[in-house]
Amino acid sequence: MTTFVKNIKLVKAGNELELSSITIEDGKIVEIGGVEPAGAEVIDGNGHIVSPGFVDVHTHLREPGFEHKETIATGTASAAKGGFTTICAMPNTKPVPDSVENMQLINGLIEKSAVIRVLPYGSLTKDISGEVKTDMAELKANGAVAFSDDGVGIQLASTMYEQMQQAAKLDAVVVAHCEDNSLIYDGVMHEGTRNKELGLPGIPSICESVQIARDVLLAEAAGARYHVCHVSTKESVRAVRDAKAAGIKVTAEVCPHHLLLEEMDIPSDDANWKMNPPLRAADDKDSLHAALLDGTIDCIATDHAPHTVEEKCCGMVGAPFGIVGFETAFPLLYTQFVKTGKWTLEQLIDWMSVKAAQIFDLPYGTLEVGASADFVLIDLEAEKTVDAEGFVSKGRNTPFNGWVAQGWPVLTIFEGKIVYQEAQ
Ligand SMILES: NC(=O)N[C@@H](CC(=O)O)C(=O)O
Ligand SMILES: [Zn+2]
Ligand SMILES: [Zn+2]
After folding, report:
1. For residue 127, what is the DSSP state?
2. Does residue 387 have an active-site annotation?
3. What's the whole-number mean pLDDT along residues 40-58?
4. Which residues pair with 227 in a beta bridge?
5. For a 10 Å CB count at each end of the chain, is N or C smaller?
6. Which ligand 1 atom minimizes the distance to the CA of 229?
7. What's residue 346's pLDDT?
8. What pLDDT shows up at residue 424?
């Protein structure tokens, strides 16, 4: 079975485009820029750009346990619509992937329902409760892509250190949601200016940064590979930058919302603006941009975190943290930062695909002969308004509703097959 995708533009250095084609055989890329093979099925790319399928190393699919928020079917369909073909699923499900049995249960659900590649995390502790350590070797042997207790920070340094020592032996990556519980103060948004105006309890920046500072030293001592989730503050950026300079094996991600928004943008006590970590101050946002550009932060990850309309209805206090991200990530970043000349198209695509894959040694996020035929065609001209009601995800929880953006995925191909096609 041969498929020929013609009339597409490859993104070369910077913003340079080159008219090309991709030939697919048995789910793999066999030629780039070749001629149409006789008898091939032909897809006309209509002159759109082609990017490697995006790789999202931080997502929440909610199944098993919270199918009212999202399922593997709806979450992966949403990701495909956003141009993603590989996503790593965080372990805050019920049950948690903390044993061979639970890992196999989750693998079975993925096998049954996912329309793109889902690589599950194993947890660092049983039930992500921070107490009993998991057996990482057996979780890895059963498909854990890496290890995290995302949703909560690991409070005890000894727990983190001992799991880093296990990870170092396995050459696995420890992925950390950094949050010191003694410094949360029941906060619902950034401890700064806007929370005082709204009369809402704040989460100080140190809640995140002190745990990163601790962890990079633990990673150094353990010789482990350590990846920081959703970096949001300038002090966190400094801790990661200093650690990299010291030769510690640390990588980091940033979320689209922390690059696009800041505390002063929060219009009111609206839970669609509540996420963890929260939207920080303008200078924090600036430091995240600088960190991406100088390589301190390695990649962009959505932290797609769907919740129901009911849960998000009634102000920030009491609502769960989290916003959805798959279906808006590329268009918003492209419109705000590439169209404005801050970034090149090549940089944005790199941060959303190849750089993300490299952190976990994944052979995806690349357009190379021999690679899995995972890619997305994007219409850079099409302009649309973000409409949460039209999301494929079950989640409607986004602060970007009504934003106008360009650069929408029109066709997503995973292992050579169409998994999303824009309605004509
Ligand atoms: N980011 C969030 O605000 N929420 C995430 C948990 C997490 O990523 O910490 C969730 O699972 O809802
Ligand atoms: Zn988190
Ligand atoms: Zn998360």
Report:
1. G
2. no
3. 98
4. 175, 251
5. C
6. 8
7. 98
8. 74
Report, as an integer, the average pLDDT of 146-169: 98
- Binding residue per annotation — 62? yes
Structure tokens at 384: 């649309």
- Contact indicator for 59, 52 with CB cutoff of 8 Å: no
Instruction: Give 250-298 pLDDT, tens digit per residue.
Output: 999 999 999 999 999 999 999 999 999 999 999 999 999 999 999 999 9
Average pLDDT over residues 326-351: 98
Which residues in 238-396 belong to E strands, given as ranges?
250-254, 299-300, 375-385
ipTM of the complex: 0.99
Please report which ligand is nearest the Cα atom of 275.
1
150 is in an annotated binding site: yes
Please indicate whether residue 148, judged by its CB atom, sits closer than 6 Å to ligand 1: no
Q: Residue 114 has which token pair?
A: 């996912």
Ligand nearest to the CA of 176: 2
Summary mean pLDDT of the chain:
98
Q: Is the CB of 5 under 6 A from ligand 1?
A: no
Residue 415, amino acid = E
> Side chain identity at 46, as an amino acid letter?
N
* Residue 166: how many other CB atoms lie within 10 Å: 20
> Which residues have C-beta within 8 Å of that of residue 364, sequence separation ≥ 6?
52, 53, 55, 85, 86, 117, 353, 357, 371, 372, 374
DSSP labels for 243-266?
A: HHHTT--EEEEE-HHHHH--GGG-
Mind listing the pLDDT tens digit for each residue in 117-137?
999 999 999 999 999 999 999
To test the ligand 1 pocket, which listed residue (58, 59, 60, 70) has its Cβ within 8 A of the most ligand atoms? Answer: 60
Q: What does the pLDDT average to over 368-384?
A: 98
Q: How far is the CA of 6 from the centre of ligand 1 (A)?
A: 40
3-state secondary structure of 378: strand
Distance from residue 275's CA to the centre of ligand 3 (Å) = 9
Choose, from 56, 303, 350, 374, the residue flagged as catalytic.
Answer: 303
Q: What's the CATH class of domain 53-365?
A: alpha beta
Angstrom CA distances, 316 to 153, 201, 274, stand at 21, 10, 6
**Ligand 1: does its nearest atom lie under 6 Å from the Cβ of 60?**
yes
